[in-house]
Amino acid sequence: MSRPEYIPLSDAAARAVAGPASRHAALIEDAFNVLIETPGGGVSVDGDAKSRAGAKQAVSAVAAMADSGRDVTEADVRVAIGNARSGAGKSPAGGLPTGRRGQVSPRTPGQARYLDALNRCELVFGLGPAGTGKTFLAVAHGAGLLLRGEVDRLIVSRPAVEAGERLGFLPGDMNEKVDPYMAPVWEALTDILGVEQFRRRREKGEIEVAPIAFLRGRTLSHAFIIVDEAQNTTRLQMKMVLTRIGEGSRMAVTGDPSQIDLVNAADSGLAHAVGLLEGVQGVGVNRFSVEDVVRHPMVERIVRAYDADAAKNGRAV
């Protein structure tokens, strides 16, 4: 091997690059066939020039996350390695807010393309498996628009467990009926806005929950609308919600076409709408892949296993 190259880092960044029991450093070593040591005040990278270059890019990305205040996980390191291998640099946050874990930013090339579409298009479809950040990034984008005053309201809609949305059988008022189904969205909003600001804006009506069925007949103006779990909308529901867009409004529709809970999967409105609208002016379609899974390494392995089984048996997941 050639002479090691030393990279000075802050203490927080050096700890993040090393990781618990040196796990993060081991991942980078295996990915680029280098040797990483932590002599103090930084790390040294030993290997050939090409290998060192890739490892240095991954180390720099991990260090930047740590210096921004983020708790760096193994998933973050794997994303940094993937970006270094593909030559993809870190994309700008594009107006995203700073959450409790630091600046919200894309962590894969697929997420960067998604955020670019959200910035450019009035209607964006985000399609892909669990753990790819399609809902969280849509929520973060909408929260950023709300905080900057570019929209007056953030409206989130999601089908209930059943396509028929029999919410009348549940006890409580509207919020109490719907909140259990909205937990992932509320978690994302509280992570980005904080509990107190989220509560205050919701009480003022700036953040609204609206079940799919309750959007009928409304025109949603000057709002950012998120339709989550859209694979469980019927074709009629999807047409209805898409035509609610009013003046000054934008919409993100997210879903996983492989996770349809409708009795008749062919009735799902998501794939049908994408087939009709892809290529229409102002419409963006972003398809996430297993490489965009950032939730936990196990999620990526699970998705790959199901995809392999579907391919072997000749069916769509």
Write the layout of secondary structure elements.
Layout (H helix, E strand, L loop, with lengths): L4 E4 L2 H8 L4 H10 L2 E3 L4 E5 L2 H19 L6 H13 L11 E2 L2 E2 L5 H12 L2 E5 L6 H14 L5 E5 L16 H5 L4 H11 L1 H9 L3 E3 L13 E5 L7 H8 L7 E6 L13 H9 L5 E5 L9 H16 L5
Parallel strand pairs: 6-10, 6-11, 7-8, 7-9, 9-10
Antiparallel strand pairs: 1-3, 2-3, 4-5
Detailed description of the structure:
With 317 residues, the chain is of the alpha/beta class. Helix 2 packs parallel to helix 4 (74-86), helix 3 packs across helix 4 (74-86) and helix 5 crosses helix 6. It has helices at residues 11-18, 23-32, 49-67, 74-86, 109-120, 134-147, 174-178, 183-193, 195-203, 235-242, 269-277, 297-312, and strands at 5-8, 35-37, 42-46, 98-99, 102-103, 123-127, 153-157, 207-209, 223-227, 250-255, 283-287. Helix content is 42%, strand content 14%. Strands 8-7-9-10-6-11 form a six-stranded parallel sheet, sandwiched between helices. A three-stranded antiparallel sheet has the order 1-3-2. It is globular, with a radius of gyration of 22 Å. The termini are far apart. The chain contains twelve helices and eleven strands.
